[in-house]
Task: inverse folding
DNA sequence: ATGTAATCGAGACGGTACGTCCCGTCTTTTC
DNA sequence: GAAAAGACGGGACGTACCGTCTCGATTACAT
C-alpha cells in the first residue's frame, strides 16, 4: 500500500483553514448538506480544491472539524465554560437546567444545520460516525455519567443503576425528537423527561 | 405551472417494480447508500432509467418504498402478525417482549442497511424525513401509546403521564444506540430500559 | 482488457457534432491549440464534456475530424473540385498552378491554425501522426505521383525517376517553409522550386 | 512595468543546471514531451521547481537549452568537428556524405525524441519556433549555403540559382520524412535526393 | 382481431461535481 | 542570495451520475 506522504503541517495556511471552516458552515446552513460541495467550499473560501483535499479526506471531514472548531470558539467566547454539570445537590434541578441549555443550543440555527448533517452522515459512514461519537457525543455523555455517579453517592439515584444507561432515558428522547423531528422540543418537554426518568412511569 | 401528467398506473409493469425494489435493497446492502445510484439500480434491475423516474422522484423514494414493501413481505411471511403490543396484563413483560423482538429485527442485516440509510437521509431531507416518520415510525410508536393507555386504565402507569413522551424513555435509547452505534444493543439492555423507565432512577 | 462498449452511432446528435467541429476550429484559431481545451470546446459548443469523450479520444482527435470535415465542406462548396492535378501537357505549368493554389490555401487563416496544430501534434503523437499522414497528406501526394507518372509517359520526366521521391523536391520545401516559418512562401517561390526540381541545379 | 530582477548568474549552481538538462532529456525520451512536466523534471533532477522557473521560462525553454547543450557535448566528444561541409571539389559526393551523417544523427534515439518534441512545439509556439530556427536550424542551413556558393564559383551549380532555395531541394524532403514519418529515411534515399536535385527530373 | 397509445429497455444528451495533476507563485529554511 | 522543499490559488483533466429526452419494441386496452 502506498501511503501518500503526509503534508508538512508547519507550513499550513491558517488563514485558508479558517476560511474553509467558515465557508463549509455557511454553505451547509444556506443550501443544506447534500448541495454543499467541495468545489463550492473552495470557491467560497477563495481557496484551491487541492488545499482542501490536502488536509481532509472528504466534505464530511471538513465539516466535522469545522463544527468542532465552532464548538471551541463558542466555548472560549462564553468564557471558561464549565464542561461539567452543576451539582447543587438537587439532581432534578441540575439536569433540567442542563437540558434546557441543550435545547437552546439545538434550536440555534448556527448549530442546527451542521450538527444534523454530521449526525446523518455518521449514520451511513462508519468512520465518520465513529469520530462523531467519540469526539462530540461521548464527552458530553460522560458529564452525565459523572453527575449521576455523584447522585448515587448522595443517595438520589439507586446505587445499582447503570449511569451510562440511565442518562439515555432523558438524553436520547431529546436527541431523537430533534434529529427526526418527530415532535417539537421545548423546556417543558425536557423537564418532563427528567421527572419521568427519575420517578418512573409506574405509580409510586 | 404544468404538472406532468400522472402516468397510467394500470399499465405499470409489476415485474419491473419488483426488480427495482430488489435491486435497490441489494445495492444498499452491498455498496452502501451513498454509492447506490439510480443508474446502478436500473442496470441491476434490467430496467430503463426512465422507468424509475416515471414512478419515483429520487433514489430515496425508491428505497423507502422498497423498504416498506420489504416490511409487508416479512409481515405476510410471518403469518398474522399482531400489529399490536400484547396485553397480558403485565406491562413490563409485554414491553420487554416487544423490545426484544425489535432488537432482533434491528440486528437483521437485511433490514439494517436500508433502515439506517433511510433514517440518515431523513435527517437531512425534510420531505423524506416526514414520510419516513409518518409511514414507518409513527405507526410503530402508536402501538406503544395504545398499550400505555391501556396500562393507565389498569393503574399500572400513572394516569397523568403523557404516553407519547413515556414511550420515548425506552424506545429512543434503543433507537439511538442502534443508529449511532454508541453502544451495542441486546435483550438485556432493553430489559433494563423498561425497568428503569417504569420504576425510575430514584430509590423508591 | 475491458473495452468500453461502443456507443450507438445511429443515435448520435448531428447538431452537437457540427457544433463541436465549429467550436474546435474557432478556438484553435482564436486562442491557439495549446490553450484550446476540451472543456472550452464543450462550453462553446453548448455541449456536455461527455459528449466529446463519448465520440473522440482527445482534443487532437476532435480537431482532426473537424479539419477533415472542413476540407470536405470547402471541397463541396467549391463545386466539383478536381482532386487531380491538371494535365495540359506542360508539366512545369501544371505543377506551378497547383502549388500556387496550395500557397493560397496555406495562407488562408481559416486553414492555417488547425493545420499547423495538427501537424505539430502529429509529430509528437504517433497515432495521430499516422492518421494525419494517411488521411490528409498521402492522398494529396498521390496526386503528384499520378501526374509525374503521366509525365514520364510523355517523356517530360526521366523514366527512371521515383515519383514518390521526385515530388518531395518541390512539396517538402514548401511545407517546411510554411510549417517552420523559416522564410515566407509565395507564388514566385514555388515557381522557382518547380524550375529547380525539373531542370536541376547543375548547369545544363 | 516591473521587470523581475535578473538573478545573479555568478551564483548559479552548475550542478543543478546539468541535472536539469539530464532530467529533461531523459523524461522526454521516456514518457514523451507532453507527459514531461516541470514538476517531473525538478523531482528527477533533485531540484526545487523555483530553480527551474528562475532560469527558464517554460519546459520548452529548458528542453531547447538541454538539446543545444547535448549538441555541444556531442560535438566536443567527436573531437573538433568541422562545422563546415567538406569541399573536395565533388559537390555531389560532399552533399551525400553530409546528408548520410545527418541521417545517422536523426536515427540516433538520444537525439530523436527531444528534436522531434522541439520541432513540434516550435510549430505552435511562435517564440520557441523562432529560437529553434535561428539557434539550431539556420546555422546548419548556412553551411549548405556556403558550400553551394563555392560550387557556383567552380561552375558546378548554375550561377543564377538561389542557394537558400537550392538547399531545400534535398534538406527539406529529408526533414519532412523524418518528422512526419511519411516514409523511412536512409543513405540511399539522401543519395537519390542529391542526384535529383543536381541534375533535375527532366531528361537531359 | 386489430389499431393505438402508453410503458418499457436502452442510452445519448446537457450538465455538475468529483478527485487528481500540474501550472506558476510564494514562503520558509538551509547552505 | 541561490537552492531544496513544498503549500498555495487556480485551471483542466477524464469519469461518474444526474435528470431529461428521444428512440424502436412490446403490450394491453378499446374498438
Result:
Amino acid at each position: 500500500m502506498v501511503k501518500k506522504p503526509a503534508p508538512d503541517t508547519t507550513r499550513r495556511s491558517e488563514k485558508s483553514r479558517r476560511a474553509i471552516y467558515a465557508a463549509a458552515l455557511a454553505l451547509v446552513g444556506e443550501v443544506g448538506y447534500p448541495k454543499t460541495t467541495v468545489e463550492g467550499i473552495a470557491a467560497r473560501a477563495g481557496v484551491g480544491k487541492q488545499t482542501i483535499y490536502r488536509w481532509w479526506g472528504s466534505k464530511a471531514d471538513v465539516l466535522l472539524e469545522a463544527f468542532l472548531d465552532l464548538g471551541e470558539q463558542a466555548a472560549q467566547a462564553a468564557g471558561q465554560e464549565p464542561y461539567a454539570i452543576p451539582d447543587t445537590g438537587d439532581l432534578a434541578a441540575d439536569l433540567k437546567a442542563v437540558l434546557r441549555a441543550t435545547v437552546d443550543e439545538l434550536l440555534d440555527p448556527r448549530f442546527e444545520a451542521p450538527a444534523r448533517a454530521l449526525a446523518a452522515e455518521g449514520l451511513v459512514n462508519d468512520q465518520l460516525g465513529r469520530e462523531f461519537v467519540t469526539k462530540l457525543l461521548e464527552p458530553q455523555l460522560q458529564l452525565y455519567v459523572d453527575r449521576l455517579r455523584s447522585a448515587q453517592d448522595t443517595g438520589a439515584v439507586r446505587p445499582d443503576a447503570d449511569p451510562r444507561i440511565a442518562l439515555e432515558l432523558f438524553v436520547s428522547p431529546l436527541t431523537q425528537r430533534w434529529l427526526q423531528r418527530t415532535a417539537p422540543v421545548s423546556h417543558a418537554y425536557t423537564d418532563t423527561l427528567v421527572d419521568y426518568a427519575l420517578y418512573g412511569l409506574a405509580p409510586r
About this structure: The mean pLDDT of chain B is 92. Chain B is about 70% helix and 0% strand.
